[in-house]
């Protein structure tokens, strides 16, 4: 068990963390997509972290924040 095994373990750990975060974000998006625009805007103002990121993404998908 050398340095290569160590790197493989670190790589698997990083990959697992990325998959977990992706799953969390997808779950949050599914939970918030059912809200109407006004509820999302209100929730955006009081949210933080991953929730705020997901709400911003949903609002952007709905056309908010796009410059025309």
Describe this structure in words.
The mean pLDDT is 91. Helix content is 78%, strand content 0%. The protein is elongated and about 55 Å long. It has a domain at 23-68. The chain is built from three helices and no strands. It is mostly helical and 68 residues long.
Structure in a nutshell:
78% of the residues lie in helices and 0% in strands. Helix 1 packs across helix 3 and helix 2 packs antiparallel against helix 3.
List the topology elements:
Elements lengths: L2 H30 L4 H10 L2 H13 L7
Helix pairs in contact: 1-3, 2-3
Strands, count: 0
Uncertain regions: pLDDT < 50 for 5+ in a row? none
Reported for the largest beta sheet, the result is:
none
Q: Strand portion, in percent?
A: under 5%
Shape annotation? elongated
Please tally the helical runs, counting DSSP H or I stretches of 4 or more residues: 3
Order of helices and strands: HHH
Derived structural class: mainly alpha
Distance between the termini: 57 Å
Helix content: over 70%
The residue-averaged pLDDT reads 91
> Mind telling me the C-alpha Rg?
17 Å
Q: What features would you highlight for this structure?
A:
68 residues; mainly alpha; 3 helices; elongated
């Amino acid at each position: 068990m050398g340095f290569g095994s160590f790197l493989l373990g670190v790589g698997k750990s990083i990959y697992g963390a990325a998959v977990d975060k992706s799953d969390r974000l997808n779950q949050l998006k599914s939970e918030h997509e059912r809200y109407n625009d006004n509820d999302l805007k209100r929730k955006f103002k009081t949210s933080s972290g991953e929730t705020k990121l997901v709400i911003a993404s949903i609002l952007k998908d709905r056309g908010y924040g796009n410059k025309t």
